[in-house]
Design goal:
- The complex is a heterodimer.
- Chain A is mainly β.
- Chain A contains no helices and eleven strands.
- Chain A has strands at residues 4-7, 10-13, 19-25, 32-37, 43-49, 56-57, 64-68, 74-78, 87-95, 99-102, 106-110.
- In chain A, the strands form two sheets. In chain A, strands 2, 4, 5, 6, 9, 10 and 11 form a seven-stranded mixed sheet that branches.
- The radius of gyration of chain A is 13 Å and the shape is globular.
- Chain A starts with a strand and ends with a strand.
- Chain B is mainly beta.
- Chain B contains no helices and eleven strands.
- In chain B, the strands form two sheets. In chain B, strands 2, 4, 5, 9, 10 and 11 form a six-stranded mixed sheet that branches. In chain B, strands 1-3-8-7-6 form a five-stranded antiparallel sheet, with no helix packed on it.
- In chain B, strand 7 (61-66) and strand 8 form a beta hairpin.
- The chains are: A mainly beta, B mainly beta.
- At the A-B interface, strand 5, strand 9 and strand 10 of A face strand 5 and strand 10 of B.
């Protein structure tokens, strides 16, 4: 009954370091999404996966890569972190004709 | 680019009063959704209204949709301190096959006890 689980919850990176944000859902949903949330800008879509084996760019994909490992897991990778990537990152999965279920977020600071 | 814009950006009311938030969007939609976000937490889905619906209720929530004006409103009746949160509208653009949602910038609601 976990829904969408994100790890880690907090992370501090130095500029140029890399890291992978993990997301897993246990609801057998096909579609999964990665958003970032910045003050005053709402949520912006980074990447999404409509189904296992497919991924597509969203509104702000630069500096990120994703991997849909299987139906449950959708990871977001920062290859070379930059201060502009300081943000709160949310993973979500879709309940068709209902709405998104969100994870609790990863708060990332790049110094 | 943001599809939805909420109005007002911030709203402060007393417990027991009604709270109304508005959302305007730019393009045709399949549906419009409202989410709540408590401070430091993820977003929680509240209600979905389809483009062919004009009004929908869920408990103390009432959502209206006017597609001719490209606008929606969320009414929370008899507000409680626990309703204090940010509220976001999100639109599913018409013709989108992947259910990508475009979020607005949110309304911060403070309910004073």
């Amino acid at each position: 009954n976990a829904g969408v689980t994100q790890t880690p919850k907090f992370q501090v990176l130095k500029t140029g370091q890399s890291m992978t944000l993990q997301c897993a859902q246990d609801m057998n949903h096909n579609s999964m999404y990665w958003y970032r949330q910045d003050p005053g800008m709402g949520l912006r879509l980074i990447y999404y996966s409509a189904s296992e084996g497919t991924t597509d760019k969203g509104e702000v994909p630069n500096g990120y890569n994703v991997s849909r490992l299987n139906k449950r897991e959708f990871s977001l990778r920062l290859e070379s972190a930059a201060p502009s990537q300081t943000s709160v990152y949310f993973c979500a999965s879709l309940i068709r004709n209902y709405g998104y279920t969100f994870g609790s977020g990863t708060r990332l600071t790049v110094v | 680019s943001q599809q939805g814009e909420e109005d007002p950006q911030a709203l402060s009311i007393q417990e027991g009063e009604n709270a109304t938030m508005n959302c305007s969007y730019k393009t045709s939609i399949n549906n419009l959704q409202w989410y709540r976000q408590n401070s430091g937490r993820g977003l929680v889905h509240l209600i979905l209204i389809r483009s062919n619906e004009r009004e929908k209720h869920s408990g103390r929530l009432r959502v209206t949709l006017d597609t001719s004006k490209k606008s929606s409103s969320l009414l929370i009746t008899a507000s409680r301190a626990a309703d204090t949160a940010s509220y976001f509208c999100a639109t599913a653009p018409y013709g989108g096959a992947t259910n990508k949602l475009i979020f607005g910038t949110g309304t911060l609601l403070a309910v004073q006890p």
